[in-house]
Amino acid sequence: MGYSREVYQKAAARLGERRRQSVDRNLAQIEQVRAQVPGAAALLDQLAQTSAKISRAVLSHGTDLAAVIDKIRRENEETQARLRSLLASRGLREDLLEPQYFCPLCQDEGWVEDRQCSCIKRLAAECALEELASPEELQRSTFSAFRLDYYPDRPDASGRIPRAGMERILRRCMEYSRSFSPKSPSLLMLGATGLGKSHLSLAIAQNVVKSGFGAVYRSCQQLVRQLEQARFSPGQQPGEEAVFSALAGCDLMIIDDLGSEFANSFSGAALYNLINTRLVEGRPTIVSTNLTVAQIQQQYSDRLLSRLSTYEILYFLGEDIRMKISTEPQSPSL
Ligand SMILES: [Zn+2]
Question: What's the CATH code of the domain at 200?
């Protein structure tokens, strides 16, 4: 499916803005040359006449149209050559009056022949990342910013070594994002607060987006609020159906911190509906939660738990790393 329509519309608008900027720059340059380089105005006026001359030739229905147009074209080239040497004689760049495109490959059109140019793909990825989370969140939630040294390397009460467990999880998340496809398995991230679940799920999401897939990242609270607004604010655009299908149909949906939402009968049913629809349609979802399996069962329905039990489970271990980050002197801003 790739990025949403909104992302492509935003990218196309940015491309249009680039085109407008390069036209404006070009016109400003021409006006400057016209005003400051003696002799340039007359040559520019001659060039500006070219298309009018061609139109007149076509409309006059003359006998040898091809020869007339060829002559106009030659005159045009000569005028351009004179203009270039005039600029050069003043120590100016010969191509000063050519439009300067952001992307010379597609001249800011977004297409090279019938293929999308790499510049529009980059712009779309940029817009898709902006939709995902704030620049600060994205910057601090990368795989390379994940600090394994915050996790104890001695066995915890259960005999497991948190750092070794987290190293396996980090590797799995990196591998998951590298090999992501819209048919990848779903992941359930379990573990106490502050063990890096949001960090790693957002790191996966940004890599997936950079690879050209569409991903939506929401805290469970934001997600329920969005679904509630769509349901209970009639007339609001986009409507309930469009909101639901964008969430149910994206390549990767991330629901962060299940259990943090204000729970009511609507939220339980809405979350089940979304999670179940994605599962039935074979689309991957990543759910993270501080709740234990028993708490999930208690707070939600058995049927929600039965859907989540089909996910690949990652158990996060350790102590709250956010405490360590906030108390560590001169820590990098994570
Ligand atoms: Zn381009």
Answer: 3.40.50.300
What is the distance in A from the centroid of ligand 1 to the CA of 166? 41
Indicate whether 197 and 305 sit together in one domain: yes
Tell how far the Cα of 77 is from the centroid of ligand 1, in angstroms: 27
* Segments forming the whole domain that contains residue 285: 133-327
283 and 141 assigned to the same domain? yes
Query: How many angstroms separate the alpha carbon of residue 15 from the centre of ligand 1?
Result: 9
Q: For residue 102, report the distance from its CA to the centre of ligand 1, in Å.
A: 8
Last residue of some domain: 115, 143, 160? 115
pLDDT at 287: 98
Residues 92 and 194 in one domain: no
CB crowding 245-281: b at 16 or more within 10 Å, else e: ebbbbbbbbbbbbbebbeeeeebbebbeebbebbbee
Instruction: Determine the distance separating the centroid of ligand 1 and the alpha carbon of 50, expressed in angstroms.
Output: 28
Q: Which residues of the chain have pLDDT under 50?
A: 330-334
pLDDT for position 59? 86
CB atoms inside a 10 Å sphere around CB 18 = 17
Q: Strand 252-258's sheet: what is its strand order?
A: 215-219, 252-258, 285-289, 187-190, 312-315
51 lies in a domain? Answer: yes
**Residues 229, 88: one domain?**
no
Give distance in angstroms: CA of 48 to centre of ligand 1.
Answer: 28
Q: What is the pTM of this model?
A: 0.83
Please give the distance, rounded to the nearest whole angstrom, from the Cα atom of residue 112 to the centre of ligand 1.
Answer: 7
Which pLDDT does position 334 carry in this prediction? 39
